[in-house]
Amino acid sequence: MFKYIVKRLLLGVLTIFVLSTVVFFGMKAMPGSPFSRDNKAIPASTMQALNEKYGLDKPVTEQYVIYISNAIKGDFGDSISKKGQPVAEIIAARLPVTAKLGLIAFVFAISVGIAFGIVSALTRHRWVNSLITIFATIGVSFPGFLLAMLMMVLFSVKLGWLPVVGLETPASYIMPVLALSFSPISSITRLTRASLRDVMGSDFITLARSKGTKEALVVIKHGLRNALLPVITYAGPMFASMITGSLVIETLFSIPGIGKEFTNSINNRDYTLTMGLTLLFGMLVIVMTLISDIVAALADPRIKVDK
Q1: How many angstroms separate the CA atoms of 80 and 207, rounded?
Q2: Residue from 49, 25, 28, 34 nearest 82 by CA
Q3: pLDDT, tens digit (0-9, with 9 covering 90-100), for 15-26
Q4: Contact 76, 70 (CB under 8 A)
Q5: Local structure of residue 86 (DSSP, 8 states)
Q6: Rounded Cα–Cα distance for residues 144 and 242 (Å)
Q7: Which of 86, 129, 148, 202 could bond to 179 as cystine, CB 3.0-4.6 Å?
Q8: pTM of the model
Q9: What is the largest CA-CA distance in the chain?
């Protein structure tokens, strides 16, 4: 287990390095300057002073070495579009908002997805299974941002039931959570249904039933325990995708989280803030994937990770 964790962490560091390199030079290749927005002319002396302040007057390769060296120390520089506010402070202020929204959507998706999968796998009513199958098929192919816009028009503009801006009240979470969790619910439903159907036909399930074990206990103790392994493997990357996938959702609902900051940083060509958030998202994906793999290995001893 220890060797596996070390290997995955080293691979994660390499992935972060490649990601940061691609994003850094990609942003530098974009035309325009972060100081010349809205087509407003800036005096040459002012432009030179700003470039010197943020180190943009140096060669690109030197800028990259300086940035990576500082990032390793935890210094992601100052935001260009926010008048020198440290990127680390922006992340610390905005991340809790996104994390709370993502955690609520994650728990909701896991709970509903597993419940739908169990019902679909065990029901004797064909129409129930067909209904859940249609839902799951639509969910995996229906973009979350499109669902968000449809809900905004229906529940906010037409009916006036739900607030559309911010996260001030519990009702404010309903539409963003549904938009973030709709596709994951469908995926978890499909995974749980397929895995549980396969497990319930196994010999050890037949043995448990032959001993007179109650059906509910057979399903929970023997069936779900083995059937949820694919869900556990999927859960880690899913949580990371919910955080990173909140970029558009936070912008649509004017939620002051990391996603909205990331979108604004790209629009404003805020190099330092975009880089800092990119590294954050990359590390989140790597860590959550590693955690899900470890939990899966602990849940099923048959999985060997010391390779």
Answers
A1: 66
A2: 34
A3: 888 888 887 887
A4: yes
A5: B
A6: 11
A7: 148
A8: 0.78
A9: 86
